[in-house]
Write a structure and sequence with these properties.
By secondary structure, the protein is of the alpha+beta class. It has one domain (about 1-140). About 35% of the residues lie in helices and about 15% in strands. The protein has five helices and four strands; from the N terminus they run αβαβαααββ. It has helices at about 1-15, 35-45, 65-80, 85-95, 125; strands spanning about 20-25, 50-55, 130, 140. Strand 3 (about 130) and strand 4 form a beta hairpin. This is ISAzo13 family transposase.
Length: about 140
């Protein structure tokens, strides 16, 4: 998200002091993941912005508007193409477009992620996360420290 903010978001939304992130409830960005929350806290501190997080309940990410906006067009652009290399996948995904001017920007991330990374034991005490009154497990705001 930091890459998107620095390359596109700042230009389009630079006057904003808060970012909204819609997340599914599984994998590395799970609502239960303190590692995810620790990384969000670090990002919020670096950007000096609030990060509003809303998690979809399990099996409900299909209601995420991004999935409906992007995935059908990417699927159509890649239909029948064998992905023999990352560059091939990138090329065809970038071809996704609509008659109304929608297009897809693809960035290949070559970062090597650390396996079995654990959150710092002190992170729970140092986080400045405001949990909502309604559904606090799934809805919260990370405030820069």
């Amino acid at each position: 998200m930091e890459l998107w903010w620095n390359e596109q978001g700042k230009q389009a939304y630079g006057e904003q002091d808060e970012i909204l992130i819609l997340c599914d409830c599984g994998g590395s960005n799970s609502a239960n993941s303190y590692l995810f929350k620790e990384d969000l806290q670090s990002l919020s501190n670096r950007l000096k912005m609030k990060i509003r997080v809303v998690h979809y309940p399990a099996y409900c990410s299909k209601y995420n508007p991004i999935e409906h906006l992007v995935f059908p067009h990417v699927t159509r652009a890649c239909k029948g193409v064998p992905f023999e290399a990352v560059e091939v996948a990138k090329h065809y995904m970038e071809k996704a477009e609509t008659t109304k001017g929608f297009n897809v920007k693809v960035r290949v991330m070559d970062k090597i992620y650390e396996k079995e990374r654990k959150y710092a034991l002190s992170c729970k005490e140092s986080m400045t996360i405001l949990f909502d009154k309604a559904l606090p497990k799934w809805n919260y705001t990370v405030v820069p420290a």
